[in-house]
Design brief:
The protein is α/β, with parallel strands linked by helices and 334 residues long. It folds into two domains: 210 residues, 3-Layer(aba) Sandwich (D-Maltodextrin-Binding Protein, domain 2), CATH 3.40.190.10; 94 residues, Periplasmic binding protein-like II (D-Maltodextrin-Binding Protein, domain 2, 3-Layer(aba) Sandwich), CATH 3.40.190.10. 46% of the residues lie in helices and 16% in strands. The chain is built from 16 helices and ten strands. Helix 6 links the parallel strand 6 and strand 7. Helix 2 packs across helix 11 and helix 8 crosses helix 13. The protein is globular and about 55 Å long. The two termini are 39 Å apart.
């Protein structure tokens, strides 16, 4: 090869790299199936739909199908089964599955701030009034159920086995509006729905108060799938990071509220709920949302309350989290 031709090839290759670097979508890879909890999806899932509808997955070269699951616990199980590639799942059930069965989860992005409350449609009640009563949850052992167990730490004298848990999927709020239940574990958007429909909720316990070191949700993948498809997963996380920042920009509020109707809420309810979620920094934008202290605290709590079975060690942050995925994704977004 002549020196002149070699220089031409090098220059062309360099130009190609520059173009590829400025257009991440040129590197479309393996299609990922990403699960979000709730049918209809819970409000936390809106981040994935924003990334999809606003073309943010595509912008960073990810090909993603967003698929709703009955709940986050089922979605996490589907990750381990290999049926899907990534799931948004509650941190406590992920820790429990990893600890009790050795499920090879890897957490790559998080939503640290839980919005759970234990609410009642009757005024004048306290958390102690739920003893012997029916309380709406998603599923026994699901996210709302574990949230209830965790919140009851802040209600001395009341244990989880004194409560009749009623499995309702994501339909606790409708059941309370219809008068079928007086107590339920609710999200912030559930509160917005009930208030708009003239059914005010009285908060008996709030996770942010009873468990300030709690952690809410993790995006999880299976360890071997991460090794095989790391680039595709990094690009999908980049789309989610960009979506979180898009949602936090006030000028996008109307668009986000429209997309959030996928949750089954009307646009006005979605807009009201969005403000409440943003007020608690729900979608992490400045870091990976996987605070080591919080995740280790949740792990310790799961062991303390018996969700991690006797003889098993609760997984730690270092065993569960791969912070490099978010770092690489964040660098791509920047």
């Amino acid at each position: 090869m002549s020196g002149r031709f070699a220089k031409f090839v090098s220059a062309a290759a360099f130009a190609t790299l520059l173009v590829a670097g400025s257009h991440p979508a040129a590197a479309q890879g393996k299609k990922l199936v990403v699960a979000v909890p709730g049918v209809p999806p819970i409000f936390a899932s809106v981040i994935a739909f924003v990334a999809d509808k606003e073309g943010l997955f595509k912008k960073y070269g990810a090909t993603v199908e967003v698929r709703p699951f009955d709940n986050g616990t089922a979605a996490a199980r589907a990750v381990i089964a290999g049926d899907i590639d990534m799931a948004l799942s509650p941190t406590p059930p992920v820790i429990n599955q990893a600890s009790n069965s050795g499920a090879p989860f890897v957490a790559v992005y998080g939503m640290p701030n839980p919005d759970w409350v234990l609410g009642s449609t009757e005024a004048g009640k306290t958390c102690k009034d739920i003893a012997g009563q029916s309380v709406g949850v998603d599923s026994i052992g699901g996210a709302r159920s574990i949230a209830l167990r965790s919140m009851l730490v802040g209600c001395p004298g009341v244990k989880i086995d004194q409560v009749q848990q009623v499995a309702l999927g994501s339909n606790t709020a409708p059941a309370m509006i219809a008068g079928q239940l007086k107590f339920g574990v609710l999200h912030l958007d559930d509160l917005a729905v009930m208030q708009v429909q003239g059914k005010p909720v009285h908060t008996l316990l709030a996770m942010k108060n009873t468990n300030p070191t709690s952690h809410y949700l993790l995006w999880v993948v299976r360890k071997d799938k991460l090794a095989a498809n790391r680039d595709a997963i990094v690009r999908a996380v980049a789309g989610l990071i960009a979506a979180a920042r898009f949602m936090n920009d006030p000028k996008n509020a109307d668009k986000v509220a429209e997309i959030a109707t996928v949750t089954g809420h009307k646009k006005d309810v979605a807009a009201a709920a969005l403000k409440q979620f943003l007020a608690i920094d729900f979608w992490a934008t400045k870091d990976d949302g996987m605070d080591k202290t919080k995740i280790n605290a949740v792990s310790a709590l799961m062991k303390k309350i018996g969700s991690v079975t006797a003889g098993k060690q609760a997984v730690t942050y270092d065993q569960l989290v791969d912070p490099s995925v978010w770092k690489d994704a964040n660098a791509m977004v920047k």
